[in-house]
């Protein structure tokens, strides 16, 4: 099996990392598929120039990616070398025998080859509280009114990114770990605002805007790309 392509670190489009393939070619180009993006570049082109190239093409790439995902939902086959998104960064999946559970090793995620899907899902669900809890707590501290936050929990509810109960428990879907970090922050703010307003009234949206002023862009992103994030692996 050929090794996975390197990534442009910290760069994602539509929640997916950007791979880089260098060759003897003379020009830079961008290929978009439903599973991700690849930049084709000359050997000596500086990384900063490649980042600028991707940013210039971002709007086009996101539109094209959305159209592809609408026609071809991403029901990804997890195999060795698969690129797993993690809050705008990426982990390379390594399928290894004799492992009992998945574990992160640097920028790799080592997982048992005999049970890849279940092991990767368990890893995400186990990892989620470490990322979710401080963000939710931050917004709860900023809220300043309403019910106190009683708990931060992980959910697997189909079709729902989060919820907030009358008892003050905020639940977030573990697949938000695969979205860009600002999307996680938006959903966290969205649910925390329900501690003050358990509805979707103008007063509620005013709280969301106060906690996370960029909420409209994040809300639009979820509308465009959320279905792809929810697609199951196999």
UniProtKB/TrEMBL annotation:
- In which domain of life is the source organism classified? Bacteria
Outline the extent of the YgjP-like metallopeptidase domain.
26-225
InterPro entries, from UniProt? Answer: UTP_pyrophosphatase-like, YgjP-like_metallopeptidase
What is the name listed in the Swiss-Prot or TrEMBL entry for this protein? M48 family metallopeptidase
The species this protein belongs to is: Deinococcus rubellus
